[in-house]
Structure to design on (305 residues):
């Protein structure tokens, strides 16, 4: 497996000169993002996600430890050209959309007819071709985010680093971005994205990592993290709920959960009672449940109740 983005025991401290306090945003953080995957980088506000991204982009230097992007130490201009980056707070020059996207392409040494064509392609991909002549200064937050994405895609990057790419987008645009990411993966690109929209992450990410107080507290394939501890949900028709522990009757069906090793016995009971099994599926927990659990938020919200 080729590693495209790598953090190696990296610590980043911010110093506040006013208060002389130090904030440790990343604490001996290690991670390897592999070629061709969509990696979801999760974590509560202030966990250190944007810090990790800014370090990879070479905007600042780690306090200790190191990292590599596309095989080179962080901060090399030559690798920057092979990467597409969307910042958390899109700040763009007040220019018309199309020249602006072309400007970012030119920064990556693109030019001529190829750049003009590519700029229109990416504006179309983010649904902004109609607004190509509009001034970005007058765009809404979601429109800015779309232009930000177009800018990140213009150089056809091998690695896309996106800091909350869909936070301002409407549902239609989110679907569009999801398709765009899947298409990029199909084309062999690697995508590293931070997001708080866990249901979206669940849909597109091959692997996720959860950062909490600068440390990686969970890492794994999305499907593995969502698999529950061996429970099956059984939905049946034509039986009464009593007699099945925890069973709920709704819309003419009865739903209950049993440990996997009791599944066969439970199905046979349904049949012996003259019922019909509609479905029997492994219980999947949501990414949100996993997130709350590993960041300790599940306990604190429970305590607040
Ligand atoms: N320029 C800075 N100077 C001082 N402290 C900073 C700076 N940038 C970030 N921090 C601190 O570093 C920690 C991590 O911040 P970071 O922005 O990386 O979190 P995040 O995971 O991206 O959060 P969010 O989900 O809110 O975007 C926070 O405690 C934050 O206050
Ligand atoms: Mg952030």
């Amino acid at each position: 497996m080729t590693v495209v983005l790598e953090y190696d025991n990296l610590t980043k401290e911010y110093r506040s000169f006013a208060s002389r306090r130090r904030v440790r945003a990343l604490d001996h953080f290690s991670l390897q993002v592999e070629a061709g995957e969509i990696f979801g980088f999760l974590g509560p506000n202030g966990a250190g996600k944007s810090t990790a991204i800014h370090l990879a982009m070479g905007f600042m230097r780690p306090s200790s430890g190191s990292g590599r992007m596309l095989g080179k130490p962080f901060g090399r201009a030559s690798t920057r050209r092979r990467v597409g980056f969307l910042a958390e707070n899109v700040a763009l020059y007040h220019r018309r959309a199309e020249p602006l996207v072309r400007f970012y392409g030119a920064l990556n040494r693109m030019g001529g007819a190829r750049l003009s064509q590519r700029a229109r392609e990416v504006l179309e991909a983010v649904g902004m071709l109609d607004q190509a002549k509009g001034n970005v200064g007058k765009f809404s937050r979601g429109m800015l985010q779309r232009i930000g994405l177009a800018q990140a895609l213009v150089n056809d990057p091998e690695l896309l680093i996106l800091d909350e790419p869909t936070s301002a987008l409407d549902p239609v645009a989110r679907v569009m971005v999801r398709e765009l990411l899947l298409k990029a993966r199909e084309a062999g690109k690697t995508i590293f994205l931070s997001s708080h929209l866990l249901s979206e992450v669940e849909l597109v990410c091959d692997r996720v990592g959860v950062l909490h107080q600068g440390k990686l507290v969970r890492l794994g394939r999305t499907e593995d993290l969502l698999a529950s501890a061996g429970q099956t949900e059984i939905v049946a028709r034509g039986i009464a709920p009593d007699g099945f522990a925890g069973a709920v009757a709704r819309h003419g069906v009865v739903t209950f959960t049993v440990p996997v090793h009791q599944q066969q016995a439970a199905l046979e009971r349904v049949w012996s009672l003259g019922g019909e099994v509609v479905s029997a599926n492994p219980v999947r927990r949501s990414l949100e449940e996993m997130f709350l659990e590993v960041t300790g938020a599940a306990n604190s919200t429970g305590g607040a109740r």
User: Anything to note?
Assistant: The chain has two domains: 3-224, 227-287. The mean pLDDT is 91. The CA atoms of residues 44 and 52 lie 14 Å apart.
